[in-house]
Amino acid sequence: MKQHKTVIIIIAVALFLAGLIAVQTWLRYEATEGRSQNIVLWHSYIGKEAETLKKVVAQFNNNSQINGGFQIKILSVSFDNFSDKLTNSLPRGQGPDIFIYGHDRLEDWLSKEVLAPLDYWFSNQELKDFHPLKALKAFIHNKRIYGLPLTVKNLALFYRHLPDGSNPGNEITELQQQNHWNLKNFQQLATKYTRSCPWNNSIKCYGLGYSAVAAYQHAFLLHGFGGSYIKKNQKIDLVTKPALKAVNFARKLAGHHDNAVVPPELSYSLMSNMFKKGEIAMVISGPWFMSQLNQNDFQFGVKPLPAIAGKPARPFLTVEGIYLSSKAYNPTASIKAIKYLIDKQSSLIRAREAGQLPVRKSVIALMKQNCRDNNKKCIYKKNFFDVFAELSQETVLMPASQEARILWNPYSKALKAVIERGKSPKAALEDAQWEIKKYLGACIRRDDKQ
Amino acid sequence: MSKNKNPFTFLMKTNFKSLPLFIVCLVILLIASLVVVLRVQKRTVQREIYHQGIKQILQINSAGTDNIKNKSVKKFFKLKAHNKYNDKLYNFEFIVGFDRSNPNQEFKGQLQGKKYSSLHDLAAQALAEKKAVMQLNRGNPPHTVISLPLEDNQVGIVVKNITTRTAPTPWLGIILIIMLAVAAFFLTPEPWKIIVTNSIGALGFGMLASGYRLAPHGSLLEILGNSPVGFTRGIFPPIWLITSLFFIGTGILYQRGKIDKLITTIKSNRIAYTYVLPAMLGMGLLVLLPFAIGLGLGFFNHCNGEFQFIGIDNFVDILSGGGTSLGNPLNFYFTLGVTLLWTLLNVFLHVSIGLSLALILKDPLLKMKSVYRVLLIIPWAMPNYITALMWKGMFQQQYGAINIILDNIGIGGISWFSTFWPAFMANVITNTWLGFPFMMVVSLGALQSIPSSLYEAAEVDGASKWQQFRNITLPLLRPALFPAIVLGSIWTFNMFNIIYLVSGGEPGGSTDILITEAYQWAFKRGERYGLAAAYAILIFVVLIIYTRITNKLTKAAEDM
Lengths: 450, 560
Fold this sequence. Notes:
The complex is a heterodimer of chains A (about 450) and B (about 550). Chain A has 3 domains: about 1-35; about 35-150 and about 320-385, Periplasmic binding protein-like II (D-Maltodextrin-Binding Protein, domain 2, 3-Layer(aba) Sandwich), CATH 3.40.190; about 155-315 and about 395-450, D-Maltodextrin-Binding Protein, domain 2 (3-Layer(aba) Sandwich). Mean pLDDT of chain A is about 90; it is low at about 445-450. Chain A is globular and about 90 Å long. In chain A, strands 1, 2, 3, 4, 7, 13 and 14 form a 7-stranded mixed sheet that branches. A 5-stranded mixed sheet of chain A has the order 9-10-11-8-12, with helices on both faces. Chain A has helices at about 1-35, 45-60, 65, 80-90, 105-110, 125-130, 135, 170-175, 185-190, 215-225, 240-255, 270-275, 330-340, 345-355, 360-375, 380, 385-390, 400-420, 425-440, 440-450; strands at about 40-45, 70-75, 100, 115, 140, 145, 150-155, 155-160, 195, 200-210, 280-285, 300-305, 315-325, 395. Chain A is an alpha/beta fold. With about 550 residues, chain B is an alpha+beta fold. Chain B has helices at about 5-15, 20-65, 115-130, 170-185, 195-215, 220-225, 235-255, 260-270, 270-295, 315-320, 330-360, 370-380, 385-395, 400-410, 420-450, 450-460, 465-495, 495-505, 515-525, 530-560; strands at about 75-85, 90-100, 135, 145-150, 155-160, 300-305, 305-310. In chain B, a hairpin with a 2-residue loop joins strand 6 (about 300-305) and strand 7. The longest helix of chain B is centred in the first third of the chain and has 45 residues, at about 20-65. Chain B is flat and about 115 Å long. At the A-B interface, helix 6, strand 6, helix 18, helix 19 and helix 20 of A face strand 2, helix 3 and strand 6 of B.
């Protein structure tokens, strides 16, 4: 009887294990079968950009001549977790075949062998159609291209017609015409609009909205004063004269003092709400800010950032691109999908419907042509592409190195310490420098040993 | 009597008890040795093929493709790079091509199409990295592709069968160690058998594997220095460490009679163990395995996807303060201090508010008790991250509800997250809001179980309300409240959500507690997973000490 029971238990356990193996095999089979005719695309778009991507993908999927029997399956992944999910899932064969993301993680992904090069599949002519040059350059590493640009994004100055009828845009235009659109006048203009709101005295209105404590937003000041976050040799030297000047100026604009022109503790959602209500007259933000605004509610415009020390301000340029995974199930079909997503027709749809600044010369030319033919349909101007395109020429490509990725947090922490807690800029930047060195410790240790 | 004179039978009889355990350890030793040996063999083969390939490319390059004698060479290509896209990218064309399986095929012009994409990739990689590149291909038969940059922007690529023989397996060494272990097993008296045998096994395995690893290099200095095969490189150190720990641990447990006891218990309660087996497996896979991996990770350094064994460096770095002053938020002791203060203050507030409300709700004269009870449980019933985000909004300097109220009553708004104490208090207020209902519910339940006759008797004796509370309520609440306090303090100690969502560690990381600090090291500060794991282990150690102390206190209280 006892032996009988033991045999039953052994059989039950064996069956259970066999069942587990069978389920796993079946799931694996399902997954690979499912993938054989599908191209999995990951993105972190929201709102109009996500809707437009769906539309473009639907066109690819419905056109059997282009897709060759393959279908793109879209998966939306949250921006904050994108990179972690990608690097965790790809080695297990569960990630995307192609994906859309900014260029700033390129070196990290290359070191983790997540990306496949693309240049072999694109002719010289196709590559030369990309504009500005730095958009494609952002994806070049060791003479190979690891991504193709879909759009570029950089900061500009948004202004609006205020409820009391005043319009800072007119004053900026005047200053531009007189060649006096500089940091000093910019501060004065922002100070002028920092007051009790004329339409409701109990509320304080501010001249400017921007995230003064974010290293990304601060870049235009740092570059303007002649500094940079990372030197060409990838070394980090934060405590420089330009850096101190830039931090000092940021402290004048924002913080807990009476002359501040930026509201304290400003979040992105609060900034857009205040701008919509007219409680902020000007905002420094990128093209994504337009998705929050509607010309029917109030009139707004986009202007370049003020000149610093006689030279144009140089904010960061982020390039959003499409990548091919090194573990793509069917690379040839994935290349087809990439070619479709960056081609002229898709770029036009993305520019018109998602407001994505086009990065192909042929598309820009076509859009400008449409403007000449029919001004009402001039999306190129309506979406301020002319302003952003011009500004993108004067930008600094956001660094994509390991050092850069580590830098943003300590630098933003230093800005916060100066702006919100009144710490001396030198001490704050020295702390940030020390912290970055410590964060990089893991890799320094390994290099030293080698 | 005569049977005992046969030495083999005598040995078998006297050692039978620990024989199964000895065999298990022996099998583990064999597997660990083979893992290291096979890996070393694989590496050696790869290295040899790599050097052979380079040699063959150079030979063919100078002698031409007509005289390729070596039959292991399946294909050979010489490509020339032309730069495209303003010299920023490579474009290749064939100079020479040879395919042994199809000698008449011509290789001319530029590389195009799917067929040649991997040739292009290898050639570009060799040119960019300015060194030979090798790719293993698991085809049938398995072959290897090696590309080597040549003069004048040219690249030589050879596709060859894997013909290299592997390095001989050190069977003699392995057998010698096994024999030594077997001898030690039979010669050592009980209960020391396993610990002595296992120590010899671990030591022998270490010596054999490290010697085998170093055999092709030959220099003793390489073991101690920074060579790629040194003691701290590759998978050898963790395998050796885990195996040795397992061996010695098993030995100690056996010597103390724990393993015997376990086997006896399992045998006598076989059915019970069968029932709990699924749960044990689940716990093992979902709790113990991740815990063990986390524990191991604490001894590694991570950089760009590569892990390197660094011993206790991470712990030394954390416990020495990492070169920071005691007042720096990056200093472990500062964070530990903040964590302890955070836990103490929160638990104190949770208990005092929870207990007070429970006493009020217990009042028989209070009307609409059920309404109050429901209202007071709502903070607990809501997901804590939603509450945390709501409180964060209320602490906003200009538009937050709290500052508006403070402004209206004339105190004036506070910049909550600019300095330590307001930011810390903002976290505490939020967590108190979330935490008191649990203590209230526990207290209420315990209060209701206290017989009213005790209070009536006390009143007859003329005891005041305070005396009743101190001498009846509190002592009878203790059995229910004490475990709740222990549980609550462990939850609060590791309360990640509130810190992360309310203050986010602001200002300058000073309100971070140990668990959020571990998160920062893992995901915000250069992916230092090893350091984060070491933090997690230290948190575990602190909580183990705390639980031990509270257990003793509980026992002491029960004995009273």
